[in-house]
Amino acid sequence: MKKYKIQQSPFVVPTTGGKLIEEHWGNSTGNSNVSIAHMVAPPDWSEPHQTPEFDEFTYIISGKNNLK
């Protein structure tokens, strides 16, 4: 029995502002407690602070985080 699942077709979250969000694990896979997604955003993109109703993990592969 496999102890892992390869997600080959992530859910593309509808967005505005030129960003792309592909959710690999979360509400789209039947788990509303966590979201693991890959996001690509334009260089000067920003958004207001959010308080989601699920655990959200962010990692930066390229670029920088401007949290203050």
Précis, in short:
This protein is mainly β and 68 residues long. It is 0% helix and 26% strand.
- Count of DSSP E strands? 4
Distinct helical segment count: 0
Distance between the termini: 46 Å
Low-pLDDT segments, ≥5 res: none
Summed over residues and divided by their number, the pLDDT gives a mean of 81
Q: Which strand order spans the largest sheet, edge to edge or round the barrel? A: 1-2-3-4
What would you report as the Rg, rounded to the nearest angstrom? Answer: 14 Å
Task: Give an account of the 3D structure.
With 68 residues, the chain is mainly beta. 0% of the residues lie in helices and 26% in strands. The chain contains no helices and 4 strands. A 4-stranded mixed β-sheet has the order 1-2-3-4, with no helix packed on it. The radius of gyration is 14 Å and the shape is globular. The relative contact order is 0.20. The mean pLDDT is 81.
List the helices and strands and how they pair.
Layout: E1 11-13, E2 20-25, E3 34-40, E4 55-56
Parallel strand pairs: 3-4
Antiparallel strand pairs: 1-2, 2-3
Characteristics of this structure?
68 residues, mainly beta, 4-stranded mixed sheet
